[in-house]
Amino acid sequence: xxxxxxxxxxxxxxxxxxxxxxxxxxxxxxxxxxxxxxxxxxxxxxxxxxxxxxxxxxxxxxxxxxxxxxxxxxxxxxxxxxxxxxxxxxxxxxxxxxxxxxxxxxxxxxxxxxxxxxxxxxxxxxxxxxxxxxxxxxxxxxxxxxxxxxxxxxxxxxxxxxxxxxxxxxxxxxxxxxxxxxxxxxxxxxxxxxxxxxxxxxxxxxxxxxxxxxxxxxxxxxxxxxxxxxxxxxxxxx
Length: 238
What we know:
This protein is α+β, with helices and mostly antiparallel strands. It has three helices and ten strands. Helix content is 35%, strand content 23%.
């Protein structure tokens, strides 16, 4: 009987030792997994703020938008080196979900037509919006920025079990400025005042007329309400 009780106590001690090892291992891994989850959330916050900082420079300065996004991300975490993409986001139309080109260049301007996947590799459309890849440079105007990155996090306890680091996985955020997607741009009221007074030379008047006509080529009734006015009377003789 005493021998049986000793055997039982010995077996119990072995089981407790094994369970303790398992529990300590699980607790250690839980700490590392929790830290990894926290780092992923921090990365998401940094990437999101970087995307919004970059979008602040849009649509007129895409190059500055890229620089601002990277600067903000690295200022928050020097280990981050994010990737960026620029898009011109407009509405889609038709049953085939094609680009609603009438919103270009009023909303943004990715470049010349046709706005198809063959001309703009990576162009994507769904039932409401189209995202057209938009490179910085020239007279292009991009209204949307996407920023993404992943981060390797050093484990504290897992290296004992052969796992040195964990990966947060890719975290992405996009931000848009202005009228984007299926949101109808707000029409602008524009008044053009032409100076026809004697103070204007013939060269100045010709330049003014050319500028007015050129501006009309980028306007449309859905985006702009235009009115004209003139200073000084029209010349009818001479």
